[in-house]
Every structure is written in structure tokens, then in C-alpha cells.
Amino acid sequence: MPAVLNTNAASLYASKNLQSAQSKMAESVERLSSGLRINRAKDDAAGLGIANSLTNQINGANQGIRNLNDGISMVQTAEGAIVSAQEMGQRILTLATQGANGTLGQNERLAIQTEMRQLVLAIHSIGGRTKFSGNSLLSQRFSATADPFVLQVSNVTTDTIALGVGAFRELGVGVSAAGNADPLVALAANAKDFAASTATQGQASLLINAINHTDTGVSSASTAAGQFNNIQTAANNFITELSKQRGLLGAYQNQIEYTVSNVTELSANLAAAKSNVVDTDYASETATLTKGQILQQAATAMLAQANQMPNVILSLLK
């Protein structure tokens, strides 16, 4: 290498290496302080794209888990209401069995009929008050076909769980044949023709019809017994239909719970995959930092030596 004064090539090389070492040290310090391997797009553009895609899936899955847990709460709310209605149905069945007994007189049969009608009124009220987030849970008519509730499982639009109308049938008496706007008014008036068409029936429609068609004023105990037998049949059918409805709700709850387990596992695996892409490997990065510190010290020392190299020219000029 020629001995020149204007250009100190060794100093330039040393300075370049020092800048490179400092840049790598700064990068290591940033990664170690943030805990992230990718702090900006230049660190790993492809990795950043993968991380963002994984973040989309993770956020969608986590919100899906919350959605599904809300769905479980909704299903449990609906089932709790049906349990109460079933208990009242059992009471009506017991009363109908009592009313069919030939030892009762007209007054006793009238008292039984009055209690049964009040129980149906309570069942109808349960259906009206059972709501979740303002949505009526037990108000689906038999003519309905669209799924009343659809749970969003993830950020994929088609990833859903549809809850069908069968699990959310109307508990009450439906619509009276006279078209009374308020079924409770019709109940109080002892209307006898609720839900004449299948489309407007509630679960308790046929039950209240059987109760209201009972003539408690008949003198013949055998005739009264036959009418109470009709109530027994209607009560049995009512209880059976509610059992089917509860069975559907139970099946939906099991489906949702298994889906929650699956989506939770998915979210955990996606989070682990994202960590592999974006998180700092401290074992590796501390080794890189140590290497950078040594290179910085060495480059600084060599830069000082390189800056002294032109002094040899002075000895030539003496």
C-alpha cells in the first residue's frame, strides 16, 4: 500500500466497520429492549406479513371464543325457562289426573280448571320475559324456517354455528282464532280456540284449548273425566315437546362447548406460531450483542491506530 497523506484508506475501512458494528449493536439493543425480533418492516418484510395474517386469525379466534361463551349463556337461559315451564306442565298433568277422578264434584273441578288456566298463563309469561341482550329466546312460531341465532366462530365469515328454530319454539299459547292482539286478554276471557293454524301455534296452544273446552258444570262425573283425560293427553304432549326442545338446546350447548375447546387450541397454536416469527430469541440476541460490543471496541481501537498511520510520512520528511 502506498504511503499517502490525503486519503487514509485504513481509517475509512475501520470507520466503516465501526459504523456497521454500532448499527448491529443498536439493532440488538432494540430487539432486546422491545422483546420483538421484527420492530419495523425492514427487519423482515415477509415475516411481518405472516405475523399480521396470524394476528388476524388470533384476534378472530379469541373474539369467537367470547361469542361462543355468550352463546352458551344464551342457550342456558333458554333451557332454564323451559325447565320452569316443564315443571308447570307436570303440575297441570297432576291436576288433570286428579280432575279425572270420579269422587270430585263440580266446585272441585272448577278449582282445578282455574289453577290449570293460571299455570298456562304463567307459562305464557315465561316465554315473553325470557330474553338475552334484548332478544326474545322463546318466540319462534312453527311456521318459521330461518335460523333465529347464528354464532360467529372466527374472522372467517362462513365459520358459524346456526341455532335452529326447533330449540326456540314459542312457549306460550300462540294466537287466538279470534285474532286477539293480546293472548293474555283472550286467556282471561276463557277463549277456546287458540292457534287454529299450525303456523301460529305456541307450545301451550293445544293444552290451553283442552283446558278451556272442559265443561266443569256438567253433572256427569264420567263426562267430566273424559274431558280431563283430554287435558292429560295435551299435558303429556306438552311435556314431551318441551323435552325435545331441551334436547336440542343441550345438543347445541355440547356443540358450542366442543367448538370453544377447538378454537381455544387453535388460538394457542397460532399464538405460538406468531411468537416464532416476531419474538426475540434472547439467547441468540444476547450473543449477537456481545459480539457487536467486542467488534465495536476492536473497530474503535483500530480506527485510532489507522488515524496514526499517516504520521509515518513525517519521518520520511525529516
Q: Which terms would index this structure?
A:
318 residues, mainly alpha, f41 fragment of flagellin, N-terminal domain, two-stranded antiparallel ribbon, 4% strand, rod-shaped
Q: How many helices does DSSP assign?
A: 8
Strands, count: 4
Q: CATH fold name of the largest domain, please?
A: f41 fragment of flagellin, N-terminal domain
Q: Going across the major beta sheet, what is the strand order? A: 1-2
Radius of gyration, whole Å: 40 Å
Give the overall shape.
rod-shaped
Classify the helix fraction into a percent range. 55-70%
Question: From N to C, what is the helix and strand string?
Answer: HHHEEEEHHHHH
The biggest sheet, with number of strands, parallel, antiparallel or mixed sense and barrel status, is: 2 strands, antiparallel
- The separation of the N and C termini measures 21 Å
How many structural domains are formed by the residues? 2
Low-confidence stretches: none
Q: Quickly give the CATH architecture of the largest domain.
A: Up-down Bundle
Strand content: under 5%
Derived structural class: mainly alpha
* CATH secondary-structure class of the largest domain: Mainly Alpha
Polypeptide structure, described:
This protein has 318 residues and is mainly α. The protein is 66% helix and 4% strand. Strands 1-2 form a two-stranded antiparallel ribbon. Strands 3-4 form a two-stranded antiparallel sheet. β1 and β2 (135-136) form a beta hairpin. α1 runs antiparallel to α7. It is rod-shaped. The two termini are 21 Å apart. 30% of the residues are buried.
